Amino acid sequence: MTGPxxxxxxxxxxxxxxxxxxxxxERAGAVPRAAIDELAALxxxxxxxxxxxxxxxxxxxxxxxxxxxxxxASPSLHSLLVVHAMVCHAVRRWASAxxxxxxxxxxxxxxxxxxxxxTEQQAGADTGALTxxxxxxxxxxxxxxxxxxxxxxxxxxxxxxxxxxxxRGSCALVDAGAGVRVAVEPVTAGLRAARLAxxxxxxxxxxxxxAVGRPGIGIxxxxxxxxxxxxxxxxxxxxxxxxxxxxxxxxxxxxxxxGGTTLGDRQLVRGLLADAALATDAAARYVRHTAQEIEDxxxxxxVTAARAKLLASRAATTATATASRLLGAAGQTEDHPLARLxxxxxxxxxxxGPTEVLQDIIAADLLRGRPGTTDRAPSPAAPYRKEDxxxxxx
Amino acid sequence: MAAPQTTTPRPHTxxxxxxxxxxxxxxxxxxxxxxxxxxxxxxxVLDSVAAxxxxxxxxxxxxxxxxxxxxxxxxxxxxxxxxxxxNRRLAAS
Lengths: 394, 93
Ligand SMILES: Cc1cc2nc3c(=O)[nH]c(=O)nc-3n(C[C@H](O)[C@H](O)[C@H](O)COP(=O)(O)OP(=O)(O)OC[C@H]3O[C@@H](n4cnc5c(N)ncnc54)[C@H](O)[C@@H]3O)c2cc1C
Known about the structure:
With 394 residues, chain A is of the alpha+beta class. Helices cover 50% and strands 14% of the residues of chain A. In chain A, the strands form three sheets. Chain A has a four-stranded antiparallel β-sheet, with no helix packed on it. In chain A, strand 2 and strand 3 (140-150) form a beta hairpin. In chain A, helix 4 runs antiparallel to helix 5 (75-94), helix 8 (267-295) packs antiparallel against helix 9 (301-327) and helix 9 (301-327) crosses helix 11 (355-367). The longest helix of chain A has 38 residues, at 218-255. Chain B has three helices and no strands. Chain B has helices at 14-29, 48-62, 79-92. Bound molecules: flavin-adenine dinucleotide. Chain B: It comes from Streptomyces vinaceus. Chain B: Residues 11-90 form the Carrier domain.
């Protein structure tokens, strides 16, 4: 069952008070849990969850509209929506029916905040290099390893941890608590308020039923399908950032008097605005197209999402750079809304697959099978190995 | 009033399933001739993005649900394996 985004939520996000609060969070360097709980009560975290599991079952295109609104005001809070939706997806798509029924309502209502724990010190874009282990001993999973830069990891109730079980890529949902040490990461320039954490799992345990997908499946399937959604949502957020920067730039150009005319009357300025507007609009349309492909479960969706993220994060880079130029000194102050948009655009080019990794995926798709090209597959996630096949156990 | 909706007939016989799977894998890999037993993923014919696309394709085309217990490499690593999985799922539904 699907429905539109909850009206009360949209009203709250469109209210100027939301932007004012977002500014306060950026200054403080933290989105507080109380604010998240308040928005979760309006349905912010249950958009992608079906109504039977207490979400609103909002279709992907309408979800991306919410992401645009949130990111335009608070790129930091937006990153929570991204990681939380990826965890909801992993549980819905790859976990057992029991886990799904038990956890989706908790996640949808925000009673359980979940972080996405993939990156390690030596394994960023390269998920083939993960060293975290998820050992299975009887009916218990034992998790050992350190994850870095986890959005909202400081206040998460659970972590979707990626690692390996007997050398095979695997994944499990692990509760915060005993055996889980949370340290605060240095504040990043973009997404300052995203509560980034370095989380060490020191023999933390979870019931075996908390495994998401089986060993050998956890990495390629779960990661790749989560990243497809993550890329769509980061792209949507980047569009929100680009639109907000473009609004600032156009408002300023239209009103700033310059030698008896306005900035916006100058041809060079008009050229900058036109380029930024076109990049932003193209990205917005591509994001909607991608959302539709994902909803229709088009086999091309994974590559389309990579394209959307590349296009939109670059649009945000272009639009924020334009705004930064046109606003002059006023746009350079730390407290100006443009500062958070500009820095967010830089982060958007790194998270959920850096620009170069996405280019690799897109080009590989383009070149696949053409004579004269090497058949090297891109590796956004660890490749399968023959040993991953463990038919014998079943 | 619109005429009653006709649904596209789904390929259901084991041979039709294999042919549809073969055609899709060929499109996804950009290769024309892939033997039914050729390892797709472990031989790098398909990457992990393609592997996920394959699951979506199978579920959508044949209206079957791939369950957690189906996610064995053997079920996805060749045209024969994938067609076999679909046929088992179709038979069970
Ligand atoms: C604000 C913020 C929030 C984050 N939140 C999370 C989170 O919630 N969960 C999580 O798991 N991680 C998170 N991360 C980590 C993020 O996913 C990684 O930073 C990202 O995957 C890149 O990894 P890395 O930083 O190790 O850089 P590297 O992998 O070392 O890459 C650095 C640069 O090298 C280049 N590069 C990398 N690979 C290639 C390639 N194959 N070809 C060509 N060039 C390449 C790119 O320019 C890339 O930007 C977050 C990061 C930030 C900054």
